[in-house]
Amino acid sequence: MAVGDLVLTGLMAVLLVGVIALLTRIENWRSYTPLAGGGTATGEDAVVLNREKPTGLIRWLTTVDHKDIGLLYGLYGIIAFAVGGIMAMLIRIQLITPGGAILGTNAYNSILTSHGITMLFLFGTPIIAAFANYFIPLLIGADDMAFPRINAIAFWLLPPAALLIWAGFFLAPVTENMIEPAQTSWTMYAPLSAEQANPGVDLMLLGLHLSGVAATMGAINFIATVFTERGEDVNWANLDIFSWTILTQSALILFAFPLLGSAIVMLLLDRNLGTTFFAVEGGGPLLWQHLFWFFGHPEVYILVLPPMGLVSLILPKFAGRKLFGFKFVVYSTLAIGVLSFGVWAHHMFSTGMDPRLRASFMAVSLAIAIPSAVKTFNWITTMWNGRLRLTSPMLFCIGFVSNFIIGGVTGVFLAAIPVDLVLHDTYYVVGHFHYIVMGAIGFAVFAGIYYWFPVFTGRMYQRTLGKAHFWLSMIGTNLTFFAMLALGYLGMPRRYATYQFDGAIAPLAQVSTFHLLATAGAFILLVGQLIFVWNLLQSWLEGPKVEDGDPWNLERDGMLDKEWTWFDRKLETAVTDGGEDAEQSALTDGGQVDDQHDDDN
Fold it and tell me: Region Disordered: which residues (predicted)?
């Protein structure tokens, strides 16, 4: 490692030690009465602490309230989503022309690497933790997380992780390119990642390791919370579906992330101390692939299971029916969790492994589609003959289901060895993966934000902008990623900064046309996300205030969950400030209006 790299690493270590020391020494963080679940004491024997919750910046730096930490996770996830989205737009602009439009090959490789790591580790996992932190205690009737301080520490490990992962972009100009962004792709395959003489790779690996530690701490906390903090009226039979998926996800994290951490430490040792874990004369480059994908494929389900839980929770609310086959949705969640550890080598069909091993991994990869199909049929059956209300959350749930079907079916093709050998490392894989990551996970996240927006803010968002966000996202997603599926069939390799093949793979004009379509779809997606951010900020500050604890009119169908009961109690105990006129709430998406207008809601 370079001297500058060692100094930066040492400073970061000192900072982290100082933060942890401060967190362990500050007393009485919870100097306010928790208001989360039904566990708040009442009556003459109730103990009420007089000191109130801090305000301003001190509140956010010292809070251990699960709701505040959930909001911090959400802000962090949205910032990472914006950074990763800008990187994605640079990639698409680069590929408008066959020779590359704006980036050199090194810059392209750096942005491609950081885009993948940012979206998976800095957006995907934290944005799920945002919902889980805020709502799991509310849904199960707990006052807070089982370990509030560990919950805070897990979040505050993430900002330095992001700075380490992106460090190369900031340091390259001031170190005269001695420290550059990593150019290993997000999979960090050896021998490239082991031999690339760039301290930025070490910083990226350290940041990735730190994010894994944070995710593991959070997983332990969620498991302990669901097992030990449930209210007296919440048992395993009536535990909500979102909590089931978070519980399964947390178990996957406990088994998967420590393995990634171990592999990263081995790679750092290879890079800096001359070990040969992934060298040809040692363990071999394929050892990294086995270790990485044994983590990497459960990671896909770590990311997608909680969004499945969000859709399973939200979609029935606007279908006017309870989730069809609740137990089978739970069983399919557990089945996916178990099977996800037996499919990793379908990423390695082209490496020359024993055909008998390949066949076994193909069988499990095909089998894991069954529990996913069970969920899909249950979502569709829940909507069948239901009283659908096409609110923004419902539209995003429906979009999730349709995109998930496309992403799932294309995944079944890739699970078949003969097809995978043809399409491996082409844009078909990129299209399939992004149908899941953006078309499914992203849509479920948007559904959750819109559904719980009144709980977060006490206000309602603009209905028209919410639906515009959906339609632009739906059109942009399908145009971009369906074009990538077509590029895969044309043989376009992934990760290439240029594509001047002179007809060796497909007619250049045909490849260029589909790249133009993909870039056009990406711009449509960008416009949709700009509308989303504007709607989020403007409605948070100036949106009509919610006067009722049931803004979606869920009680009519018996669908009012515990978090809305808590929200109603919060509104009742809040000091009134004049509020908004009751008629104004009727302009919001799904607010309290007459039954004759339900179709518009």
Answer: 575-601
- φ/ψ of 314, rounded to 5, equals -85, -40
Q: How far apart are CA 460 and CA 579, in angstroms?
A: 13
Strand partners, 459: 545
Q: What angle do CA 425, 427, 429 make, to 5 degrees?
A: 65
Q: How many residues does the chain have?
A: 601
Q: What is the pLDDT of the chain when averaged over all its residues?
A: 87
Tokens of 327: 């137990």
| pLDDT tens string 503-516 | 556 788 899 999 99
Contact 487, 73 (CB under 8 A): no
Task: State the Rg of the chain over Cα.
Answer: 24
**Over 80: is that where the pLDDT of 326 sits?**
yes
Pair 460, 515: CB distance under 8 Å: no
Buried b (16+ CB within 10 A) or exposed e, 580-593: eeeeebeebbbbbb
Is residue 406 within 8 A of residue 435, CB to CB? The reply is yes
Phi-psi region of 468 (alpha: psi -120 to 50; beta: other; left: phi over 0): alpha
Which are the contacts of 587, defined by CB distance < 8 A and separation ≥ 6? 463, 544
Residue (of 28, 72, 78) closest to 50 by Cα position: 28
- Please report where in the chains the tokens 């078949």 appear, as a residue: 416
Distance, in Å, from the CA atom of 490 to the CA atom of 389, rounded to the nearest integer, reads 41
Q: CA distances (Å), 112 to each of 79, 187, 268, 497, in order?
A: 18, 11, 21, 9
- 3-class SS of residue 545: strand
Give dist(CA 221, CA 2) in Å, integer: 37
Gap between the Cα atoms of 471 and 430, Å rounded: 22
Q: Which of the four pLDDT bands, split at 50, 70 and 90, describes residue 566? A: very high
According to DSSP, the residues that pair with 426 across neighbouring strands are 493
How many Å apart are CA 152 and CA 23, to the nearest integer? 9
CB atoms within 10 A of CB 28: 8
pTM for this one?
A: 0.88
Instruction: With beta carbons less than 8 A apart as the criterion, state whether 403 and 439 touch.
Output: yes
Q: Which residue is it, tokens 């594509």? A: 499
Residue spans of beta strands (DSSP E) within 306-366: none
For the segment 295-317, the average pLDDT, to the nearest whole number, is 95
In Å, the largest CA–CA distance within the chain is: 83
Q: Give the angle 405-408-409 at the CA atoms, nearest 5°.
A: 85
